[in-house]
Amino acid sequence: MGRIIIFTGKGGVGKTSIAAAHALISAEEGKKTLLVSVDMAHNLGDLFACSVGRNVTEIKKNLYALELDPDYIMHEEFPNVQKAVIDFVGASGANITLNGHFPLPGFENLFSLLKIKQLYESNAYDRILVDCAPTGETLSLLKFPELLSWYIEKFSPVGKIMLRVLNPISKLRYHVKLPDRKALGDLGQMHLDLINLQELLKNREICTIRLVCIPEKMVVEETKRNFMYLNLYRYQVDGVFINRILPEHMDNPFMEKWHSIQKQYIEELEKVFVHMPLSYIPWYPEEIRGSQAVEKLCEDLRSLSNLFDIRLQTDNEEYSLCENGYLFTLKLPGVIEDEVEVYMHNLDMNIRIGNFNRCIPLPNTLQRSQITSVQLEQGVLKIQFKIPEFPNTEEAH
Question: How far apart are CA 31 and CA 123, in angstroms?
């Protein structure tokens, strides 16, 4: 089984350098490794001082690089998916421009994820390391498959059937299987791809996310929010890399003051990510550019034991039977109760935190239910559903 590791964080904190260092170490271990950039401001070519583009480029033995162009991938590699979505959105009444685009934010980025899924399923690489865009764009990218599935479910009969049948409770109790692709049209096949894509990205034995930050106030605050939002959408974070840490005792009052400031924010990160592996990367006086320069960063990462192990494997979202109904739990570290709004709308449960809203289609079992309580306890959101005339647990479905 291969691995996918996604690196994200605020712009300018060193995501690309740390992802590249991971890639070099992976290649040295004899693992065929692909380093993929999904940031439209690609800089893998600058980092390795060579030409990298939309075709896989060999950097050195076992190490390959690729810079994704979502618009090119959409038109050249997934034309059927593009057509299915455009036909679907057009049929639902949305305005589509003459060049085949429509105002669905993040649509092109979906194809970067589909390409990563295709590369993973090719079994050509042992590890795929993904260098993502800054935090906000990464969150938009990762939530898009679920968002588009939600649209399809609302406006397409095939979506309503598949998402309702394949809800977590039905899968758990009845072990239902996905429909045969041959029995589905273009839209059904695309929806099936979206479901498989979500399952791949949220499979905790395959895909994990690593946060990169530096010890400065704005970056620390964004890192904390990033971690919380990734948990909201059920992605697994398995490490935090604190980059550009100044050395002690520099005999310079200005730098000593900055070291003191950094120490304060490092301690804050340690308190927030108390159960999360933290890695400390020193500040380098030289610019990290080219394979030899990245090698210096590798020296620090090599000191970390089990760098490519999956560090956390507990799911952060689940339904469970309880008295008079079901209990939905979701881990939301770093959130206070006043920031969370939970409400029902049509057949969805909406969880809103700040500017982010996750719409979770309710299983058939819960469509007539009512939310009786919402509690946030030690970073875990607990939502109690009461079902009218709820039968005993042996008969519930």
Answer: 12
Which of 278, 302, 326 represents a domain boundary (last residue)?
302
Number of folded domains that form the chain: 2
Residue 175 sits in the same domain as residue 259: yes
Strand 207-213 and strand 237-245: the pairing is parallel
Residues 93 and 46 in one domain: yes
* 114, burial (CB in 10 Å: exposed 0-12, middle 13-18, buried 19+): buried
327 and 297 in a common domain? no
* Both structure tokens of 37: 């950039």
- The answer to whether position 256 is within a domain reads yes
Q: What residues does 156 pair with on adjacent strands?
A: none
The first and second tokens of residue 87, run together, are 């036909």
The pTM score is: 0.82
* Under 8 Å between Cβ of 124 and 116: no
Strand partners, 239: 210
Cα-based torsion angle of the residue sequence 178, 181, 184, 189 in order, rounded to the nearest 10 degrees: 90
Judge whether 257 lies within some domain: yes
Residues 246 and 283: beta-carbon distance below 8 Å: yes
- The dihedral region occupied by 27, where left means phi > 0, alpha psi between -120 and 50, and beta the remainder, is alpha
* H-assigned helices in 253-383: 253-272, 290-302
Question: Hey, what are 105's tokens?
Answer: 């934010």
Overall average pLDDT of the 242-265 stretch: 90
Q: Give the tens place of pLDDT for each residue, 154-190.
A: 766 555 555 454 555 444 443 444 445 454 566 677 7
Q: Which sign does the torsion angle of CA 123, 127, 131, 136 carry? A: positive
What is the spatial distance between Cα 145 and Cα 196, in angstroms, rounded to a whole number? 10
251 and 321 in a single domain? The answer is no
Which residues form the domain of 76? 3-302
